[in-house]
Amino acid sequence: MIRDNYLDISRITADPGVLKIFKIIRGYGGVVRFVGGAVRDALAGLKAANIDLSTDLSPDELAEACEEAGIRTAPIGLKIDTLGVAVGGTLLEISSLKKQVKGGNGRTEVEFTDNWEEDASRRDLTINAMAMDDSGRIVDPYGGMEDLRNHVLRHVSEAFSEDPVRILRVARFSAKLCDFRIAEETMALMTLMVENGEADALVPERIWAEVSRGFASRHP
Q: 120 phi and psi, to 5 degrees?
């Protein structure tokens, strides 16, 4: 069940350019929400380092909506689901909702969706799976607010195990949020992933990207 709550949007941003994006996408028939760390940090009373948005428009639809409003967009690296949107002096990253499905060749492929809960199910931790609209309404399908209140790092779903770098990400959040404990079921899943050798495939660049950020946290 999706639980709702409200937060003063100024805890994330008061930038009129950012808020304009909400109006543009809504005018095109889409929905856009703050997601991930911006929502988590605002609820925790921390300053949001980055503002990330998600929308139920596809990247092509998002580009068209912005183009009609005279706003420039550009792909973000190799992320096929994310566009950079320039508003004022800010470059926002806006991702389209997605799900992962098995292709005919057995490989995991990405499809876009308009299902917010399905997209959130593929995030790493419950505290990172919350979203918020421009009225301040929190959408929390996996109990992230409760885990935030109880200082628990808990994985959202079994999709966690599809990317072993998330083991290091949990360690990084443990360093940042020093009084949080790792849920028993999450620790058990990470231990199983290591025992199965899933982490052995991680390349040094991905390892360092997480470890270096952990070193820069309050309690490295």
A: -65, -25
DSSP single-letter state for residue 130: -
The total number of residues shown for the chain amounts to 220
pTM equals 0.88
Which of 1, 220, 2, 10 lies closest to 136, judged by CA? 10
Eight-state DSSP code of residue 155 = B
Over residues 132-154, the pLDDT tens digits come to 999 999 999 999 999 999 999 99
Per-position b or e across 167-198, b if 16+ CB within 10 A of its CB: bbbbbbbbbbbeebebbeebeebbeebeeeeb
Distance separating alpha carbons of residues 50 and 128, to the nearest angstrom: 13
What are the tens digits of pLDDT across the range 24-59? 999 999 999 999 999 999 998 887 778 899 999 999
**Helix/strand/coil percentages in the chain, nearest 5:** 40, 25, 35
Q: Where are the alpha helices (DSSP H) in the chain?
A: 16-27, 37-43, 59-68, 116-120, 144-149, 165-176, 184-195, 204-215
Distances (CA, A) of 141 to 35, 48, 64, 102, 150: 13, 21, 30, 24, 17
**Integer Cα distance of 20 and 121 in angstroms:** 28
